[in-house]
Amino acid sequence: MAEFSATVYQNEFLPDGGTDVHAIVTVSCTGAGAAGQSGSGDAGEIIIVDTSGSMGAEGIRAAAYAAQTALDQILDGVWFAVISGNDRAQLAFPPSPEPVMVRMDQFTRQAAKDAVARFYADGGTAMGTWLRLAARVFATVPSLTQKHAILLTDGENQHETPEVLSATIEAVTGQFQCDCRGVGVNWQVAEVRRIATALLGTVDIIPAPDQLAAEFSKLIKQAMSKGVAGADMRVWAPQGAQVLFVRQVAPTVDDLTSRRTEVNALTSAYPTGSWGDESRDYHVAIRLAAKGIGQEQLAARVQLAVGDQVVAQGLVKALWSNDEALTTRISPEVAHYTGQTELADAIQEGLAAKAAGDTETATTKLGRAVQLAAQTGNEEATSRLRKVVEIDDQDTGTVRLKRSVEKADEMALDTASTKTTRVKK
Amino acid sequence: MDTAMTSTTGTTSTTCPSCGGPIGAADRYCEACGAELSPAATPATAAIDTDTEPTVELNPSAARSAEAAPGPCRSCGGVVGDDGYCQTCGTKAAKPRDHFSEQPAPWVAAVCDRGIRHSRNEDAVAVSADAEPGSRAQLVVCDGVSSSLDSDVASLAAARAAREVLAAGHAQGMGTESSRNSAVVARLKAAADAANDAVLANTSPDSPNPASCTFVAVVVEGDLLVAGVVGDSRAYWFPDSAEPVGLTVDDSWAAELIATGVPRQQAETGPQAHAITRWLGKDAPDHTPRTTTVKVDGPGWLVVCSDGLWNYCSEAAPLADLVRQTAAANRGEPLATASALVDWANAQGGQDNITVALARL
After folding, report:
1. Would residue A78 count as lying in a domain?
2. Does A161 lie in the same domain as A46?
3. How far is CA A423 from CA A328, A346, A368, A372, in A?
4. Which residue, A329, A344, A379, sits at the end of a domain?
5. Is residue A71 part of a domain?
6. Closest in A294, A299, A322 to B90, CB measured
7. Residue A172 has what DSSP assignment?
8. Considering CB atoms only, which of A238, A313, A323 is closest to B90?
9. pTM score, two decimals?
């Protein structure tokens, strides 16, 4: 049985007239078990592989091998399907003209592997059609409570307008989770990130086709270890208060604020997807009406809910004080993740400016990123940044853009920009 | 809350970080501005954390009315959650010990409140009354000394022990007014003894700062009001159509100054204004109440209160006006009036715990 816990880190003391309360809430899960085995519904997995012409013979062979490796990792009993996509989507397995899924067993696994072996590269790229088909396929099995897909692409979404893709993303949001991977350097990080973010998944680059199999295997293993099909973060704030934002800040930065749904007048819910044995940190900011010195009130109840059941709760408090020693204290957790969030923004904005030829903004933003990465001890970000800029002084953020940069390094910096380091507690 | 004289003299070399006023080494609050002092000033032996442990637990029989289930949110009327905060406005619910009231008969009521600036309620009140208006009543207020340990536990135990003694006595003496008076005075002394014993019973034998509290009790016996006091909690008699009367004289440094001719205003706002010269407790030199008797010859309000109220209105005349106006605004209902007076003191800043006990005669 999965057990959740929530711990709050904050400075609850506000100065006279203070209104904004910030807190980091760490939510941890243990005993999650395996996907589809918690007794509260079945798990479904769809593998979506780009089979457009640009994949080429070598790319397709690597992708097929990776898909076969992934099939090996799907647990027996889990419902599954394989979609091949180019400028339209086809159900590669099970072989059926209509959307359908089957349960994994030794026979379906072998049949699926055989089907995948027949992939060939042809046509263009329209990822929206792949997502729509995946949603329709998942919908054929009503018992599914956990729906996860992995999507592999190698190129830009050329055979579909951005508007159509946006509409599709909106239409399928909330229907399944999707981790997205781009192979090579001819795909757009921002485009694929849009899909992954909306579908509560991750985005990453796989520079060379021979790295595909290991990555697919890892992703499916992860998905199979998520024994809790879905959970919502719930935030209660007092009457008259305003929830400024709700952000996941570890292991990656993901702003949940706009995904709000209402539970009741004072409580909002934000989907967090499925959970395995893991720990995530959330940054919650609430604006209150100021109260008098010495008054205490609750600023937020931060809860994790599985279905209608609240499984963990942390209390965010506010206590007005005229003791400056208390009110000026900065929570190290809040400071750390505020810096990490700004780091992610600085990297993405810096790379976007660089791509647009705005060297000045790119230098400033990436310089700030170098400074923040150093301040928050994010060594992984520092080493990725080092491949794109020459660092003259990391303390002041003085950098120069490198003359020649490997495209893959730049994309890796972009996709990894939202990865955060945990605060040392 | 009061500072026992012995615990502050000689230790006033430190000053309040908030207002610069003198503070004793063991004080948890500045007596001048009410600021909570840093934990460094608290003796390391403060073993009982009253934020997490119910302060009335040491004496379960004393816990009756203060342990009632939490009512609706005092700020917005919403439902208080299991986590101790209002489910609508988030206001922290008061602990039962932080705010409680008693109304033994429609004509007698008392409200005891933590106030705003202090983190716990060391005031206590215990009242009892016969059903017939103006017949018999006993009103006791004790105010825990903030520089002593566990005085919130001690003060409640003391007030309830005194009430028990006062309510049990039916001795009418020889029937003459003077013999009735002597009998009530004797009962007040016995009540002070019982209250003192209750404080001692709730004091750890090796406490470096033994619990202590003030004591004021008024017995209503028909047309007779007899007040007894140790410390600076007070009783007043406000007849509707006669001059208001203070029934008590404080055992305080300020009162001694006033007796030597220093103006009340000046004496009661001086640095040692709240230092008391007599109290109940292990280190009390003398706890015999000083008594005053008044004959009632018309309707009026009997007020028994702690300094959390009179700090904001010390003189009998303006306090009488305040009580009369507040009563008029609450249709003369004693509980609503006492509650409104507590709200008024909180609106003035609520720098100390506030207790108001009223009887409508």
Report:
1. yes
2. yes
3. 20, 19, 20, 14
4. A329
5. yes
6. A299
7. H
8. A238
9. 0.69
What CATH number is given to the structural domain containing B301? 3.60.40.10
Inspect the interface and report whether the beta carbons of B83 and A296 lie closer than 8 Å: no
Rounded to whole angstroms, how far apart are CA atoms A234 and B177?
A: 70
Q: Which residue do the tokens 């014993």 mark? A: B197
Residues B277-316 pLDDT 10s: 999 998 888 999 999 999 999 999 999 999 999 999 999 9
How far is C-alpha A77 from the geometric centre of its chain's CA atoms? 26
* CA atoms lying within 13 Å on the CB side of residue A295: 21
- Tell me the sheet residues that pair with B9: none
- Whether B83 sits inside 8 A of A298 (CB atoms) is yes
Verify whether the Cβ–Cβ distance A295 to B117 is below 8 Å: no
pLDDT tens for each residue of A217-229: 999 999 999 999 9
User: Which chain B residues contact residue A322 at CB under 8 A?
Assistant: 18, 35
8 Å CB contact of A239 and B89: yes
A59 and A18 in a single domain? The answer is no
Question: Which residues, other chains included, contact A351 with Cβ-Cβ below 8 Å and sequence gap of 6+?
Answer: A362, A366, A388, A410, A413, A414, A417
Q: At CB < 8 Å, which residues of chain A contact B?
A: 236-241, 266, 288, 292-299, 301, 313, 315, 322-323
Work out the minimum CA distance from A290 to partner chain B, whole angstroms.
12
Confirm whether A93 is domain-assigned.
Answer: yes
Q: Which residues of chain A have a CB within 8 Å of the CB of B117?
A: 293-294
Tokens for A21?
Answer: 């309360």
CB spacing of B89 vs A297 below 8 angstroms: yes
Number of compact structural domains in chain B: 1
Gap from B214 CA to chain A (nearest CA, Å):
26
Same domain assignment for residues A312 and A380: no
Domain assignment of residue B208, yes or no: yes
What is the rounded distance in angstroms from the CA atom of residue B91 to the CA atom of residue B75? 7
Chain A to chain B, count of Cβ pairs less than 8 Å apart?
41
Gap from B85 CA to chain A (nearest CA, Å): 6
CA distance B76 to A241: 14
Residue A315 and residue A179 in one domain: no
Long-range contacts of B133-136 (CB under 8 A, 24+ apart): B133/B105, B133/B106, B133/B107, B133/B360, B133/B361, B134/B107, B134/B220, B134/B222, B134/B296, B134/B360, B134/B361, B135/B220, B135/B222, B136/B220, B136/B221, B136/B222
Q: Do residues A319 and A338 both lie within one domain?
A: no
Is the distance from CB of A174 to CB of A271 less than 8 angstroms? Answer: yes
3-state DSSP helix/strand/coil percent for chain A, to nearest 5?
A: 35, 30, 35
User: What ipTM was assigned to the predicted interfaces of this complex?
Assistant: 0.80
Please tell me whether residues A89 and A193 are part of one structural domain: yes
The residue among A293, A313, A295 whose CA lies nearest residue A305 is A313
Report if residue B87 sits inside a domain.
Answer: no
A314: in domain: yes
Q: Which residue of B has its CA nearest to A317?
A: B90
Residue pLDDT, tens place only, A344-374? 999 999 999 999 999 999 999 999 999 999 9
CATH of the domain at A283: 2.60.40.3670
Residue A387, classed as helix, strand or coil, is coil
What is the domain extent for residue A401?
A: 333-418
Write out the two tokens for B344: 């008024």
Secondary structure class of B359 (helix, strand, coil): strand
Return the residue of B nearest to A313 by Cα. B83
Total domains in chain A come to 3
Which among B85, B86, B116 is the nearest to A294, CB-wise? B116
Q: How confident is the model at residue B27 (pLDDT cuts 50, 70, 90)?
A: low
**Domain containing residue B283:** 3-69+95-360
